[in-house]
Amino acid sequence: xxxxxxxxxxxxxxxxxxxxxxxxxxxxxxxxxxxxxxxxxxxxxxxxxxxxxxxxxxxxxxxxxxxxxxxxxxxxxxxxxxxxxxxxxxxxxxxxxxxxxxxxxxxxxxxxxxxxxxxxxxxxxxxxxxxxxxxxxxxxxxxxxxxxxxxxxxxxxxxxxxxxxxxxxxxxxxxxxxxxxxxxxxxxxxxxxxxxxxxxxxxxxxxxxxxxxxxx
Length: 216
Prior knowledge:
By secondary structure, this protein is mainly alpha-helical. The protein has helices spanning 12-32, 39-46, 50-56, 60-91, 94-109, 112-123, 129-138, 140-156, 165-187, 193-211. The relative contact order is 0.10.
């Protein structure tokens, strides 16, 4: 049997150029907005020639798409990790485990770069409707799907009162992160980590009061 041929490795210089271009574009998009950023600006900040930049990314839209795609990948990885946490919740100390999940969810969402990207993407949604829809479906939408599935499993295991899992997931997410997220999105000011954790803790307590089986 002949050996399976492997695809040729990418030129490290090309990899470095692409990485530098995306990092520079991210910085400039988040600081100056999409309209306020030019390919010349990106090339200068990345420390590469305009020719090299255009060889890797044909236009500004391609770099914007790549930046959003990178965040989607992060969100998908986070959602995958949540699935594993629900297995531990069914077997371990349920209230403490749920508090840990709520805290990690809040801290993952309330990151300055995530808030800045959401604000930017909302502003450009009319120009990039498919990209905005894809972000919603594969980032916050995917996290909500995992939460709904996990809460359904916890309900079946008798750890939570039975209810519509999608509504339960929505209520959990808003209780632990909704209010500080709204303020950050509209005011642009990030809450402190202590405030995020305190809101998540109180949100989980309220959630348990409604859905926990140890409550009447």
